[in-house]
Amino acid sequence: MNFQAPHLIVEGNRTFRLGSIQGREIHYEFSRIRDFLEFKGKQLFGETFQIYPEDHGILTQLIHYFIKDEIMCKNHGIDPDKGILLSGPIGCGKTSFMRLLKLIVPHKRPYSVLSSRNIVFAYNHIGSKALQDYGDHGSYCFDDLGVEPSGKHFGQECNVLGEILLSRYELFVLHKVKTHATTNLNAQELEDRYGNRVRSRMRELFNLIAFDADSKDKRR
Ligand SMILES: Nc1ncnc2c1ncn2[C@@H]1O[C@H](COP(=O)(O)OP(=O)(O)OP(=O)(O)O)[C@@H](O)[C@H]1O
Ligand SMILES: [Mg+2]
Questions:
Q1: Ligand 1 near 138 CB (within 6 A)
Q2: What is the pTM of this model?
Q3: Residue 41: pLDDT above 80?
């Protein structure tokens, strides 16, 4: 990674130029970022991956957030200091986008995309140690939030992701640490799942970016 020129990304014998340097700033170009994301998407998820025109709106918001374009974030009502909660119907491409978007800012600390289900399975196996793992300053994207089973370790029931979100909220308030997540659920369903204490903190923790409810399932 070239820290002097983070807008140049070398992939094998190809160099992707995501924009140009103007003064001390990088002037990113949407079409170049889109081409890079399509290339990486094909590489990671298969040749059928493409950036669909109907996803340009949501992708634009995500790009402005990740490159920290303050003016455009303001236009979208996005707070660049909070994390992202990417919601949308099954198979619309939430996980793929979150796995891809960190790649456009290689000079920033990447977040790990972690399956919420797997975190619960870790809790069932090792108990509260599994919760502590996410109370650190690491950056995470909790994938498929809200549909994970509830945790149980030696008879001790636990709303694992609910507890983790409470810790992540503390970290956000004290140290500005970011948390991202993807979900199929709407605000009401998240509240039903985690209670209003967690839901209220989620509003502080996340910017909500939502795919249209009628976005098609890309698995089909
Ligand atoms: N832009 C795309 N072009 C082609 N295929 C895609 C695209 N985005 C995602 N896919 C494929 O569609 C499937 C679903 O994508 P993904 O897992 O990102 O969706 P999701 O919204 O996270 O789904 P879920 O709600 O089930 O978690 C995957 O097989 C993925 O490779
Ligand atoms: Mg997903």
A1: no
A2: 0.96
A3: yes
Strand duo 14-17 + 8-11: pairing: antiparallel
Whether 60 is in the pocket of ligand 1, judged by its Cβ within 6 Å, is no
Helices (H), the chain: 30-45, 56-66, 70-76, 94-101, 116-126, 129-132, 160-175, 187-205
**Mind listing the domains of the chain with CATH numbers?**
8-210 (3.40.50.300)
Q: What whole-number percentage of the chain has pLDDT above 90? A: 95
Here the contacts of 121-124 (C-beta below 8 Å, separation 24 or greater) are 123/151, 123/153, 123/158, 123/160, 124/151, 124/152, 124/153
Coil, helix or strand for 41?
Answer: helix
Among the bound ligands, the one closest to the CA of 91: 1
